[in-house]
Design goal:
Length: 283
């Protein structure tokens, strides 16, 4: 019997009101993540990836559908209920820009200890856990006294990951966690994320870069115009993509395509995506 999902999104719709009418950011999105599973959510800018992530952590209110986190249906949670859930550290969010997500006036130690102290944990216990998680993300203790502005981009990103993990959450949402890093730090961050799968934490890896996610995720869900058009084991999605949009992403990923990628073929796929058949059906 498969384990109960720690995150379940069912028939989720999100609409934004605009002067020109309603913008349909998500349409009927369903996604489940098991404990210890890493699921990549892939799509271009505007596909609905960040809207999905923000809905899961209560930053966007769904128009329809259900969201369940660790057995609790959070779809209709009010602000106070979300604050209580976040305080328990069950679900955490790693933002794209680590510099903007860390308080510039707090040291690394203070930033990592803050969520534990909010939970009411003794300071000594908080400090011990901070040091343990700093080691898990492969950072030296000498960085504990530094401010975010005194760290490199790769170090800041690992600090934000440690901060998300220090409460031992059930689910971590990573929104484009390596897009702001150079190639060397991107590889280190991906290696770190791979090592976290054994801890039992469910990871949802949001990205526009299929190449980055392919080696980390157990499963990949492809978002196109607010809909999931393909969802399956990572190897199957990469090697035998069924939908035209997925084939386009695979062909566009520098780490996945061959040096002799056929540009004309990719142009034909883009043309196919403009048709209703290409949008609605697998090809």
């Amino acid at each position: 019997m498969s384990p109960e999902p720690v995150l379940a999104v069912t028939d989720l719709d999100v609409h934004y009101r605009r002067r020109q009418g309603r913008l349909h950011a998500l349409r009927g999105v369903s996604l489940s993540v098991a404990p210890g599973e890493t699921v990549g959510v892939i799509g271009e800018t505007g596909s609905g990836k960040s809207t999905l992530a923000r809905a899961v952590v209560g930053l966007v209110r769904p128009s329809a559908g259900r969201i369940t986190v660790a057995g609790a249906e959070v779809t209709a949670f009010r602000a106070r209920q979300w604050r209580a859930l976040r305080r328990r550290g069950i679900v955490q969010y790693v933002f794209q820009d680590p510099l903007r997500s860390l308080d510039p006036d707090l040291t690394v130690e203070e930033s990592l200890a803050e969520p534990l102290l909010i939970q009411g944990r003794p300071r000594r216990e908080a400090v011990e856990r901070v040091r343990a998680y700093l080691a898990r993300v492969r950072l030296d203790e000498e960085l504990l006294s530094r401010l975010p502005g005194e760290l490199s981009g790769g170090q800041r990103q690992r600090v934000t990951i440690a901060r998300a993990l220090v409460t031992e959450p059930r689910v971590v949402i990573l929104d484009e966690p390596v897009s702001a890093l150079d190639a060397a730090n991107r590889v280190k961050a991906l290696e770190l994320l791979t090592s976290l799968r054994d801890a039992g934490t469910a990871l949802v890896f949001i990205s526009h870069d299929l190449g980055s996610v392919a080696g980390v995720a157990d499963r990949i869900a492809v978002l196109y115009r607010g809909e999931i058009v393909e969802d399956g084991p990572a190897r199957a999605v990469v090697n035998t993509p069924r939908h035209a949009y997925t084939r386009l992403l695979v062909g566009s990923a520098p780490t996945l395509r061959s040096a002799r990628a056929d540009r004309a073929s990719r142009r034909r796929l883009r043309a196919l995506l403009r048709t209703e058949e290409g949008i609605r059906h697998d090809v």
